[in-house]
Amino acid sequence: MDIDKHAAGAFSWPELATTDQHAGVAFYRSLLGWDVKEAPMGPEGVYSMFTRRGREAAAACTLRDDERRMGVPSHWNTYITVDDVDASGKRATELGAKVLAPPFDVMDAGRMAVIQDPTGAVFQIWQAKRSIGARVVNEEGALCWTELATRDPKRAAEFYTQFLGWKAKTGGEGVNAYTEFTTAGGSYPSGGMIDIAHFGDRGAQVPPNWMPYFQVADINASFEKAKSLGAQVGVSPTKIADAGQFTVLADPQGAMFALFQPK
């Protein structure tokens, strides 16, 4: 689906930050059929813009030196559109979040800040100027869902509903509960939330995080291809009643992501 403007509160840009940009770009191009456009970033190298049908779908960059020194692993960044980054940064702080990177301009593309929610998950807020972020979503090879894994779902739900005006709907109980988030004015959910305790012992080393889901036509074929390209398996293809199938993987550099085949 083509997008020319993201509503406030929408997931608008998945960005890979990786230890090996060249290898990461090659992996996702092969797996998801993306084309790529390289944009110079000065002394920081290049910004790899993934495209589908000539429209921006995602991006990749190299982890900054300070991130490497802090031991930050390869990961996917999650950008959420807001109307006013400066005002949103202040509001996030009032609600108990930390502003890890105060608002700054990204040339003429937009203005952003990096936020850590009260439960520890990090995300970016984006005020669009020249660039809205992803211009294709919810189709094969594009972002179709974004999911928060946290150790305090109740606190997280309180934060995001107050901060972004999202509506939250939770089904199930205890560690098996799952929450769906819908943007203010949205007609269907675009993100979800799960308790890290749901993963049992496997979740002990998992930090709170946001993870992107990319849509595919054949989950089993994509799963096997990802493994052949060096991906590690987090969750093998699993059915979701009345929705489709998903799988969770780590790319060869360790960044976690999910694939989804709708029913």
Name its key features.
263 residues; 2,3-Dihydroxybiphenyl 1,2-Dioxygenase, domain 1; 2 domains; 8-stranded mixed β-sheet
What does this structure look like?
There is one protein chain. The chain has 263 residues and is α+β, with helices and mostly antiparallel strands. It has two domains: 11-128, 2,3-Dihydroxybiphenyl 1,2-Dioxygenase, domain 1 (Roll); 143-262, 2,3-Dihydroxybiphenyl 1,2-Dioxygenase, domain 1 (Roll), CATH 3.10.180. Helices cover 19% and strands 43% of the residues. It starts with 10 loop residues before the first strand and ends with a strand.
Put the structure in a nutshell.
The protein has 263 residues and is an alpha+beta fold. The protein is built from 5 helices and 16 strands.
